[in-house]
């Protein structure tokens, strides 16, 4: 492995220009009997890319295909580690406190059928949000185990393993999108709950009301902002009408389609080899 690393470093350095710093991305692809790596060259806040192989005789078609898989690997790994880990660590205290309060309200408060229905809807949104967040935590833990395993294996990825990374990202995307949908759809119910609280003294008498009131008010605000965020994230029509499996497949296909278009300019401007 050390000999391979020295060979790659020499090849990468060969294409370095004056005043540039360069590095080789450790996550690499094993494809058709060769190891493929991305090299990066940076100067004056401008970065260019090269693709290196451990084999001296590689066809342009194989270079192009390997490059496409490496871009997916690099982009999806970075997004999971940045966005996924941030989402994993969201403070869910308000959701748990509100859920417990709503459960006690349904059990102990004097409610009309309409009031009960609104509180049921609010409780349903809390349960769904908590369930999705629990899955996000488990998913990110699974990803970390996968990533650590790949590190012990020298950061080598096969095509099926790149696809697995893409699956991690697609499920993360699904969870994040669905959480946003739940928050958006529940705003009106929590706004109605706020009105009920002002009219029904038995709700105010439930234990921890003052503590939970602030969370209820938060859940009843920001509908326009949530709608804007969802619109920005909805780059495929009717995502909210798809099952989890359909959602994941759809966003993956859309990403690959858009990335192939982006790859045309990346391939054209590769530092090495000349593929455009």
SSE order and pairing:
Blueprint: H1 2-14, E1 21-24, E2 28-31, E3 34-43, E4 46-53, H2 60-88, H3 93-108, H4 113-152, E5 156-157, H5 159-199, H6 201-204, H7 209-219, H8 223-233, H9 244-268
Parallel strand pairs: 2-5
Antiparallel strand pairs: 1-3, 2-3, 3-4
Helix pairs in contact: 2-4, 2-5, 2-9, 3-4, 3-7, 4-5, 5-8, 5-9
Structural overview:
This protein has 276 residues and is of the alpha+beta class. The chain has a domain at 73-262. The chain has nine helices and five strands, in the order H-E-E-E-E-H-H-H-E-H-H-H-H-H. The protein has helices spanning 2-14, 60-88, 93-108, 113-152, 159-199, 201-204, 209-219, 223-233, 244-268, and strands at residues 21-24, 28-31, 34-43, 46-53, 156-157. Strands 1, 2, 3, 4 and 5 form a five-stranded mixed sheet that branches. Helix 2 packs across helix 4 (113-152) and helix 5 runs antiparallel to helix 8 (223-233). The two termini are 31 Å apart.
């Amino acid at each position: 492995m050390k000999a391979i690393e020295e060979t790659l470093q020499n090849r990468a350095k060969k294409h370095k220009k004056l005043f540039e710093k360069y590095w080789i991305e450790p996550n690499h692809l094993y494809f058709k009997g060769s190891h493929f790596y991305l090299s990066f060259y940076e100067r004056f806040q401008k970065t260019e890319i090269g693709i290196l192989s451990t084999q001296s005789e590689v066809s342009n078609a194989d270079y192009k295909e390997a490059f496409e898989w490496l871009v997916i690997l690099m982009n999806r790994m970075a997004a999971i580690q940045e966005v996924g880990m941030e989402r994993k660590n969201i403070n869910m205290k308000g959701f748990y406190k509100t859920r417990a309060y709503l459960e006690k309200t349904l059990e102990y408060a004097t409610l009309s059928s309409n009031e009960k229905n609104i509180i049921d809807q609010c409780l349903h949104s809390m349960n769904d949000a908590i369930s999705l967040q629990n899955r996000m935590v488990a998913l990110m833990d699974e990803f970390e185990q996968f990533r650590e395993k790949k590190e012990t294996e020298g950061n080598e990825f096969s095509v099926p393993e790149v696809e697995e990374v893409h699956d991690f990202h697609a499920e993360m995307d699904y969870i994040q999108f669905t959480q946003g949908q739940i928050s958006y759809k529940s705003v009106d119910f929590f706004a109605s709950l706020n009105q009920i609280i002002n009219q029904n003294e038995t709700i105010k008498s439930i234990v921890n009301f003052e503590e939970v009131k602030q969370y209820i008010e938060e859940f009843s605000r920001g509908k326009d902002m949530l709608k804007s965020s969802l619109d920005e994230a909805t780059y495929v029509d009717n995502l909210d009408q798809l099952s989890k499996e359909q959602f994941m497949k759809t966003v993956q296909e859309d990403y690959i389609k858009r990335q192939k278009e982006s790859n045309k300019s990346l391939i054209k401007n590769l530092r090495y080899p000349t593929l455009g």
